[in-house]
Design a protein that fits this description.
The chain has 534 residues and is of the alpha/beta class. The protein has 18 helices and 25 strands.
Length: 534
């Protein structure tokens, strides 16, 4: 089967570089449509390369774990799989999982069930991207890069499996190849028939990556000997001694990795209704500013904008004990726009301005496996760029909050404040920034237009409310948490924004009776100074 392939650069840490073919968008779309109708078939175009002869090596590792448990490759029907709409999805009854948005388009374009098999999980958030497992692959979705053609990429399962198994990936001596065996100087390995023809027909370097091992003898699931070869993104197998191309198949690395690394909850089927429900979500989106101690008699504004360290820790511990799952602003948007499912009982912490206490905020949330969105004033950094980079790398979201925090309704150079803050943060972080917060929640139609034109995908206000929709994606609501909030009042704010099926389990009565924070007070930030800005 011939596929059209999107352009995607090598990922950080990839063992060898890869080149991608480029097709104009309308031609790629035509190929997708034809592929869905079963009208595009045959081998991919020959690839120029040289190959070398190398004797197979033996390894002690076994493929016995492949036996049993593989789901049937039932027929998969998708509606409007290439329409860039929020409602597109594909639900696979055989596995109880769905495929949505850009992942679905990539899945369909690169061979569908024939190449990938059925989905074994929903997209799982890993750092700044999502990872979804299939029987024969895993796909990475980087929402920050939507629209660039590089937002969905193969995960390097072949390299992961080979290195974790302790296989020898020693390169061979270069040599002149033939049409039956090619040598790849980029990886230092060869590829021979019948694997060579299979590799070419399945997309070559774009579909499987480069070979990273020679042929290896391994035990098959039935005890028989198999010949296996590893590639960056996959592994191929055939019965030992066979030269029949029809007996070549994918090793189900996605299945093996998913069963080894995911929790039962991550593998558990989800109801189809979660994909067909309207794309709105009720979520407690909570706005904070400082964690510090302020005397209200000396600075009432600063007091209202500040949470005492012990209260902050109580809030975090209660959120965990009540079974809530923290998500970023971007994650809520990804559900609304792409159908990436949110966890049960989602809650969103938003920290405005980028104050120095955010380092304490980040450390305490990281300890608990939680996440948040920090909206940073790009020309008033109170943490070092290295600290913000660390926060970003640990899976927290960094959003823009203008360069100097003005009332945007009276600013002449809106692009300087809005687009400029995006440019500043992207230069510091090294990737696109897609979330924005209006300073003091003040905006008008002109401001919103500049936010949209600057390339932000989602923007948050200080407008009260809990329901997020695609119609409000540049004016999403928030609820403020202030220095006057006790644990009990905090709980009531959270419960008010919790979906009805979960709200009944949230009990706020008597929470102020005394809970002890789980962190030594000595780690708390120092007493704050008066503030004059929000």
């Amino acid at each position: 089967m011939k596929y059209s392939w999107s352009s995607a650069p090598a990922r950080p840490g990839r063992p060898v570089g890869r080149k991608r073919s480029h097709l104009p968008g309308h031609i790629a779309l035509l190929f997708v449509i034809l592929a869905l109708l079963g009208l595009v078939c045959g081998a991919t175009a020959p690839v120029e390369a040289a190959s070398a002869e190398a004797a197979p090596s033996d390894a002690a590792s076994s493929l016995a774990a492949i036996a049993g448990g593989l789901a049937d490759y039932s027929e998969i029907n998708a509606a409007a799989v290439d329409a860039p709409t929020a409602s597109q999805f594909l639900y696979v009854d055989g596995s109880g999982h769905g495929i949505t948005g850009p992942i679905l388009r990539f899945y369909t374009r690169t061979g569908g069930a024939e190449r990938h098999g059925q989905p074994l999980s929903e997209p799982i958030r890993v750092g700044n991207h999502y990872l979804q497992y299939f029987q024969r692959s895993a796909l990475e979705f980087y929402p920050d890069y939507v629209g660039t053609g590089t937002e969905v990429r193969f995960a390097a399962l072949g390299h992961t499996a080979a290195t974790e198994s302790g296989l020898s990936l020693e390169q061979i001596e270069p040599f002149a190849g033939t049409d039956q065996k090619w040598y790849f100087p980029e990886s230092g390995h060869s590829l021979a028939e019948p694997f060579l023809s299979f590799w070419r027909n399945e997309g070559g370097q774009d579909g499987l990556g480069l070979p990273i091992s020679e042929e290896i003898a391994q035990d098959g699931p039935d005890g028989g000997q198999m010949t296996v070869q590893y590639f960056e993104d996959a592994a191929l197998q055939r019965p030992r001694g066979s030269t029949n191309p029809a007996e070549v198949s994918f090793v189900p690395l996605g299945e093996l990795q998913a069963r080894a690394k995911l929790t039962p909850a991550q593998l558990a089927p989800v109801a189809k209704e979660r994909f067909t429900a309207p794309r709105t979500v009720k979520v407690p989106s909570l706005m904070f500013h400082y964690v510090r101690i302020v005397d209200p008699k000396k600075d009432l504004l600063g007091y209202n904008l500040s949470i005492k360290p012990d209260n902050y820790l109580k809030f975090l511990d209660w959120v965990q004990q009540a079974g809530f799952n923290t998500v970023t602003v971007g994650q809520v948007y990804d559900y609304l726009q792409y159908g990436i499912l949110l966890p049960d009982k989602p809650i969103q912490f938003r920290w405005d301005d980028g104050h120095d206490s955010d380092w304490f905020v980040y450390q305490e949330m990281k300890k608990r496996g939680m996440t948040a969105t920090f909206f940073v004033i790009s020309r008033r950094l109170e943490l070092t760029p290295a600290q913000w980079q660390q926060i970003d790398q640990d899976g927290f979201e960094i959003g823009a909050h203008t360069r100097t925090h003005p009332d945007l309704r009276g600013v002449k150079d809106l692009a300087g404040e809005i687009t400029g803050s995006k440019t500043d943060l992207e230069a510091m972080l090294g990737h696109p920034v897609r979330s924005f917060a209006y300073p003091s929640g003040k905006y008008n139609d002109t401001v919103v237009k500049v936010v949209r034109d600057s390339g932000f995908a989602v923007a948050v206000t200080t407008d009260g409310g809990y329901t997020w929709t695609t119609d409000l994606k540049l004016k999403e609501p928030v609820v403020s948490v202030t220095g006057q909030d006790s644990l009990e009042s905090f709980c009531y704010k959270v419960r008010a924004g919790t979906a009805s099926q979960f709200a009944s389990s949230v009990n706020c009565n008597g929470l102020d009776a005394a809970t002890t924070p789980s962190t030594n007070p000595q780690t708390a930030p120092p007493t704050g100074q008066p503030v004059t800005k929000k």
